[in-house]
Amino acid sequence: MASPNPLVAPVTSAQRPWSSDMRIPPGVLRSARERRGYHRSGWRGAGRCPRLPRRAVRRPAPGRVVAIFDVLVVGGGIHGAAVARDASLRGLSVLVLEAGDLASATSSRTSKLIHGGIRYLETAQFGLVREALRERAVLLETAPAFVRPLPFMIPHYRGEGRPAAWVALGLALYAALAGRQPLAGGHSLTEHRRLGASETLSMEPGLRRDGLVGSSLFWDAQMDDALLCVAIAVDAGRAGAEVKTHTALTSLRREGGIWKARHKDTIDATEGESAAGVVVNAAGPWADEIRAMAVGARQSTVRRTRGTHIVLPGIAGERALLLTARRDGRVFFVLPWGRYSLIGTTDADDESPPEKVAPPREDIRYLIEEAGLAFPAAAAGRPVRAFAGLRPLARSRAGNPWSNPRGYRLILEEGMISVVGGKYTTHRSLAERVVDRVVEMSGRPAGECRTAKTPIGTDRAGRINALRERHPGTLKLGEGLVLDEAEVVDAVIAEKARRLEDVLLRRTRLWLDARALRRAAAPVAAWMAQRLGWGAARSEEEIGRLTRSLDDEERRIEEGTR
């Protein structure tokens, strides 16, 4: 007998956001992927780069001051991590320099979706949508611990938003661009259907009823953005890459066809020097600053737009909702995450220093108001978290930020490749294209790209389980939130965590709950102190750093709810 349609059936525990012991079972996307025909747009760069001379590049010997690598990757966000993983799997020597923590900026402040971007069909970005949908299928198969299928609902209201017929046409095109992407149980990620008002309300009883005429259902996917980025970086390290976090690039110059980089550890102030044949600038919002440092570039290629999200106690069911803001007609999401709802995002130009980006009160107020209009019972709700990140969009002539294309550009300047723009969803195919070019430029022998078939983060659960016997501690933080000592130790040993906030905000799923973060701070700092040799002063500094950040966020939430 055919299984019930998962678009309308109750969402099972396996489809809910993950806990430490919840994983999407292998084979949830059971068919072989059709990966041919990836988007391959023309190279955009300042002329051709001469091939670098062949050389024997080895891993640095202990104590050696200058290490020579095939490629230096600047930035430990999703694009930098993906490039490092791809290049290392092909046999190239790789150094990654990240000024903060892995995924500490844009890559942990997303809507946490792996999606084709149905709204981009309105601006005819068909190539981008097709590529993203194919990459969605790749990630569902290679990263089931971090990416899961997610059903979506688009409510339809009389005289508001996109007409239902227009949405139906868009969903049909979305499915056609995706190709065949089956799910377990005989269903498909390309399924979509229309519901009437009564059936819509039976699934989402909290929706505003006035003017509701029905809804449309379809599939996309959800991810844990920070954990996925960290897992990719860890896999790069396992394949041979050297990954340095909290290490700022202080100078970058080219001499005799070789890039020489100076860098400084921002925690212990130690300095170092490295060299590489090719540089990949994957610094995201800082990409223009790296170009200026390296080649004196003055023209801005990055348009920084701020995306703010808030987290409310759960206001909807277990499906994501794609809604139209009544104030300005923009699309926003209400996304399920355990007991909470993640709501966003905004889209506004922001030229403030990327390291200082924060959710302004007007963004928080806007999201609270729109959530209350969509779900009247949420009108009095108070966010438990609020965060903002900068999208490093490829600058275009678009007037409004939300109309700026979401594709990427690769800029070639004197042996350096700068990544500008791009979506989290397409990080793997972007990295494949970058590393293809690195191989061509360097003249080094290298294997074929393997990332479309290589699983991500498969050893994480095993690593943590192996540590439990020697590190049996457990923190029970209320409301079902639990953190094991073994997870913290693994974050330090294997995942490059060096600060308390590295663990709590990007190596666990406690980021949703500020109260849990405060309760966990002291005991987790104690566990880290044992492993890293912190004294009392350093532990207090780490706790204070996290507490001040949460206090500032709480103040912004307070201002946004007045």
Automatic annotation (TrEMBL):
Query: What GO biological process terms does the UniProt entry carry, in alphabetical order?
Result: glycerol-3-phosphate catabolic process
Q: Which UniProt keywords apply?
A: FAD, Flavoprotein, Oxidoreductase
Required co-factor(s) are: FAD
* Molecular function GO terms recorded: glycerol-3-phosphate dehydrogenase (quinone) activity
InterPro entries from the UniProt entry? DAO_C, DAO_C_sf, FAD-dep_OxRdtase, FAD/NAD-bd_sf, G3P_DH_FAD-dep
Tell me which residues make up the FAD dependent oxidoreductase domain.
70-401
Q: Which residues form the Alpha-glycerophosphate oxidase C-terminal domain?
A: 483-538
**Range of residues in the leader sequence:** none
Q: Which family does it belong to?
A: Belongs to the FAD-dependent glycerol-3-phosphate dehydrogenase family.
| PANTHER family from the UniProt entry | GLYCEROL-3-PHOSPHATE DEHYDROGENASE (PTHR11985), GLYCEROL-3-PHOSPHATE DEHYDROGENASE, MITOCHONDRIAL (PTHR11985:SF15)
Q: What is this protein called?
A: Glycerol-3-phosphate dehydrogenase/oxidase
